[in-house]
Amino acid sequence: MKEQTLTPSEIESICSRAGLGRGDGAALIAPIVQSTSFCRENIGSDCAHQYSRVSNPTVAALEEALGQLEDAPPAVCFSTGLAAETALFLSVLRQGDHVVCSRYAYGGTTRLLQQLFPAFGVETSFVDPTDLAAVERAIQPATRLLFFETPANPTLEVTDLRAVCELGRAANVLVAVDNTFLTAALQQPLAFGADISVYSTTKYIDGHSAALGGALVSRDAQLLERIRFIRKSTGGIQTPFNAWLTLQGLKTLPLRLARQSESAATIARWLSRQSAVDAVYYPGLGSAQQRALAAAQHRGADGAVVSFDIVGGLDAGRTFVEALQFCRLAEHVGSVETLVTHPASMTHGDVPADQRAEIRITDGLLRLSVGLEPAEVIIADLERAFAALSAIGTGSGKEVVECPAVG
Ligand SMILES: *Cc1c(COP(=O)(O)O)cnc(C)c1O
Predict the structure, then answer these.
(1) What is the pLDDT of residue 394?
(2) CB-side exposure of 343: number of CA atoms within 13 Å?
(3) Ligand 1-lining residues (CB < 6 angstroms)
(4) What pTM, to 2 d.p., does this model score?
């Protein structure tokens, strides 16, 4: 199996030239085609686009680029990442089917599978994806889909893609991988044997906190046709304007991710030296096994999200976040501005406390989505927050942790 389908320079070229026109008088960048409908010369004449719920030229330009990035036919784009996931589930599952899903999946994925699909007779087992025996045990005769997300949100566990894809193949079950955090620029799930790459383009691909969006990428022509049928039937297509914004973002994706990942790694190392930090989660800093997986799967960088646990729990977390003057508190990752999230009260606020504990979301856990600002500027802001912590005595002044656990 090919694992390096595209070189970094091919990826940069596809991104920077996404939607580029050619020919006398052609628009250089993809135009925004807002039209809901397209004309035909005759009844039955075959034209590329008919109605924008089914397909649209601006959306198609984005789909072509996202497919190329994984050596695949055009992607299928949706209005949001969760619309893409819903369409995937409707495409491959029916009453009586079973799903195996990573227990570290995005909260919205868990909500769909736990709170919505059971009403339609689809059950899901949630497993620790780093325990391959547990994944294998969870596969039943009725299992139709394995769903993973790596690195996981927010504790950044890396799942062994090759191993889980082999489990799927052996059981004749489709494997989907949510690749939102790294994107095709840093990780190519299909090259490891996954059947479908899943994206919230809202995050790194748009990258400017300007457009919601989702995408599914696959090399399985029949599956793509089914997904397009579901999209046409349920109406979750991306809008032309958001597709256009996403195309503009895509052009700088490899550059942004390279720079933001480099800063994230610097900040993760700095955090691991702070006495008020209990643990730092970053794929490049975890256990030897996690580091080896990251090195094998990630292409040149480990992404721009860092999570860390601060001593003192919820109160310390609140003091810390309120002392930040530069980083913004927001439920989002993947943009050019540095954002901090308190998962226990924000992204995972709906998850019961005992389940949160199981996936290591403690009250003192903070998730940092590192932006394009210089790392030293972000670190200076974090320093201010640590100083506020020691001033109230929950931080380094009181409970000194000698050697912060890493990973
Ligand atoms: C945000 C996110 C989603 C959902 O995407 P929306 O565009 O917000 O619907 C899915 N998976 C991951 C990993 C995400 O971060």
Answers:
(1) 54
(2) 31
(3) 80-82, 106, 108, 149, 153, 178, 180, 200, 202-203, 212, 214
(4) 0.94
